[in-house]
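User: Can you recover a sequence for this backbone? Please restate the input before giving your answer.

Assistant: Of course. Working from this structure:
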């Protein structure tokens, strides 16, 4: 079997020109997406724009000194990549946990986790790229009474502990 044959689905010739790589230009993002108060989502990679079936990708902007309402995305997993600004995340049944991320950092949000994105900067916008594990535009806005103050969480995972986490 040749390399070209191995790259095609069994029993079908694929027109890679029409069903291959797609580029969605910055000016062509779709702002007609479910929104959470305090942020603006714009879809880039969807079934409609690129033929994606298993994931969704787009941008998120939170204005300076702003925050979203508490929400979750059902059974979808989310990955947030911070492009610029400082993201403060709160999560938990009463948003009782918090951590911050900056440019170049990735944030993982598991399914059904209540969370809130906060722009930690008072004078710069927070710009992120968002990727979700499905096409459904699930945004469940929640009416939560947050715990104050939240507990600051320092670790990234069980292996990479923040120095202050051991205190």
């Amino acid at each position: 079997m040749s390399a070209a044959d191995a790259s095609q689905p069994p029993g079908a010739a694929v027109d890679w020109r029409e069903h291959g790589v797609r580029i969605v230009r910055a000016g062509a993002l779709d702002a007609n997406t479910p929104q959470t108060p305090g942020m603006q989502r714009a879809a880039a990679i969807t079934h409609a724009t690129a033929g994606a079936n298993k994931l969704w990708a787009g941008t998120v902007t939170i204005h300076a000194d702003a925050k979203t309402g508490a929400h979750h995305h059902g059974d979808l997993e989310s990955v947030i990549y911070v492009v610029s600004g400082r993201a403060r995340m709160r999560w938990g049944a009463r948003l009782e946990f918090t951590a911050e991320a900056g440019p170049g950092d990735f944030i993982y949000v598991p399914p059904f986790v209540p969370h809130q994105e906060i722009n930690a900067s008072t004078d710069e916008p927070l710009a992120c790229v968002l990727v979700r594990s499905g096409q459904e535009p699930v945004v469940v806005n929640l009416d939560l009474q947050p715990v104050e103050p939240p507990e600051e969480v320092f670790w990234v995972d069980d292996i990479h502990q923040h120095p202050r986490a051991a205190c």
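That completes the design. The longest strand covers residues 56-62.
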